[in-house]
Amino acid sequence: MSQSQHPVALRIEQRVGGATRLLATVMCLPLLDGIFPALVLAGALSEPTGILEVGLLIFGGSATVAVVLADMDGSPREQAKSVLLVGSVVVVGAVVEAALAPTIAGFLDLAVFERFAGLVILAVAAQTASARIGDYLPRPAIIIALGLVASLDPAGAQLAIQFDPELMARAAAAALVAVAFALHLALFGPWLRDIVDIDRFRFGSAVALGVLPLGLFGLVPGDAPLALAVLGMTFLFAFDPEDSVADFRSGGEGDDESDGDEYDSVGPASADTVAEEDHAPWL
């Protein structure tokens, strides 16, 4: 079972098993359940800040952090190879779905569909924050299907297939942001496991996801990096070097063998123990 206690990761791990498969499913999930194409159609990639937000919060996000830091085994180099393998699939999938987006857009009233895209992000944010809340919410794919039905506009449909190379490049950039983020986690995992509170980061990223649709709803300017600002604050609040400081002190003083033994274990097993002990009360 996933040791991260992340609601999304736990649910997926029960079906796929294995850390690499789990990472692949988590990072490809926005492609499979329709969240990414919905955001593409809603214009979420129209600004550079939107590309960063989609890459870090949709493809990356707290589930990716939880899987890489708490569930993946092996050396940083081995984990990096797994991330690059998964990342290649994510980039190709993002480009393919972005290539189909202009054709699909011709059949929809985008003003209506953008509202449903915002509702999808809110639902994902709620599921990330709490597994109990997620049990009462419809699946993202159902919300997107309802949005497609509600925004269907056959009058403006064009049967010809359309390609937008610029949009495809933006989609690839968003996926590459997520891959670079996951690669950073894999390479610096031994250090990050000691200073990052995964559950605290999960809750903060859920808040960042929750403010992301504000631009789609027109409540804030579309180019305002509000979600990125919240994500930056999340990194600060998730920074918890207390264990590392205790490790350094116990190793330097050498007068407390019990403290030293507590930090002899390095790697995923230590992360598992920390995740279980610091399990968030809102789950």
TrEMBL record:
Which keywords has UniProt assigned to this entry? Membrane, Transmembrane, Transmembrane helix
Q: Where is this region: Disordered?
A: 247-283
**Which spans are transmembrane here?**
21-45, 51-70, 82-104, 110-129, 141-161, 167-189, 201-218
Pfam family name, one: DUF5794
Compositionally biased residues, Acidic residues: 253-264
- Leader peptide range in chain numbering: none
What InterPro entries does the entry give?
Answer: DUF5794 (IPR043812)
Its recorded name reads: Uncharacterized protein
What organism does the UniProt record list as the source? Answer: Halorientalis regularis
